[in-house]
Structures are given as structure tokens and as C-alpha cells.
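[09:14] KT: can someone run the structure on this one? pasting the chain below
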Amino acid sequence: MNPKMFDILCCPVCQGDVVLSDYEIACVKCHLRYPIEDGIPVMLAERARKSS
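[09:31] RB: done, C-alpha cells below
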């Protein structure tokens, strides 16, 4: 993924900053993790999972 994409992406649930973590997009505020499928982040609340 293009690192510049993280300048415009935010968590759709809490609007927190996100980072790339283990092939997922992780919110640093609410700790939800969003999958990346075929190189495209799936930033849908219903697809997110809570970090353990």
C-alpha cells in the first residue's frame, strides 16, 4: 500500500488515526482492525474486528 494513503485514511467508527499492522489497517484509538483485500483496505465498520 502507498504510505501516503495513511495521510487521508481514518477509522470510520471513531475517526482515529490508522496504521498498517500485520496486513491489516489498525486504528490507534479504538483498536479496531480492518482487512486489506487484493491491496485495497476494506474500511467498513461491519468488517472490522477488535484487537485482542
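[09:33] KT: thanks! DSSP finds no helices and five strands in the chain.
[09:34] RB: yep, looked fine to me
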